[in-house]
Amino acid sequence: PGEYEPFVFAIQTLRDLDGVRVEVGHLLGLGGSRITANRIEARQIRSWPVRTHYSVFNSYMIVPEILDPVRPTDLDANTCQRFWLTVHVPDDTKPGFYQGVATVKADNAPASRVDLRLEVLPFRLLRDPTKSFGNYYYNPLDKIQATMKSAVVEAIKKRTEAEARDMQEHGMTTLQMGGIGARKVNGQWEAVINLDERIEFLQ
After folding, report:
1. Where would I find the H helices in the chain?
2. Facing residues of 129 across strands?
3. Strands 17-24 and 73-75
4. N or C: which end of the chain has fewer CB atoms below 10 A?
């Protein structure tokens, strides 16, 4: 209970498909227990070119890296499209097996179903206080400039809050943050970092 669990599956198109999307229903358990569909987030995986190394600028590879919100998408024949479902199991979920269906639909083809089965164990995972989990993170607040419109600044702050909340909910306890600048003083380079902003962000 309380954990995030992923389902990942892919479809291979045999012909051109229009408006491909995925719909997910409730996961049903014994005795009328259920994990409702609003606890399941559906995303489609986007692959794009990424440098093979951060110091290399003329060599790329195609990497599945972005989880876009599911939206009707036209797919050419012989295309592989992967989908990622994240189930946020409620804290009060009864232990046992839960089953449901993800339905793949297209405007010009019959619907297909993918059976889902999730086991909820009768205990909660404990946090190990001796271990830290985190992410290398570029803080969007570093992009704020004095010339920006207030609506843009507010949007950046809301994005930052949402990302911080999401990382915390997924068990992250620390961050390695980019955005450290440098300046030359009396012929010597020194790091420049706004600790107040980062402390506020972490809090």
Report:
1. 150-169, 195-202
2. none
3. antiparallel
4. C
85-100, pLDDT tens digit by residue? 999 999 999 999 999 9
pTM for this predicted structure: 0.81
Residue 3 burial (C-beta neighbours within 10 Å; 0-12, 13-18, 19+): middle
pLDDT at 70: 95
- Structure tokens, 154: 């507010």
**Tokens read off for 152:** 């843009």
Compute the radius of gyration of the chain from its Cα atoms. Answer: 22
Residue 160 burial by CB count (10 A; 0-12/13-18/19+): exposed, middle or buried? buried
| Res. 187 pLDDT band, cuts 50 70 90 | confident
Residue closest to 175 by CA, chosen among 159, 198, 144, 142: 198
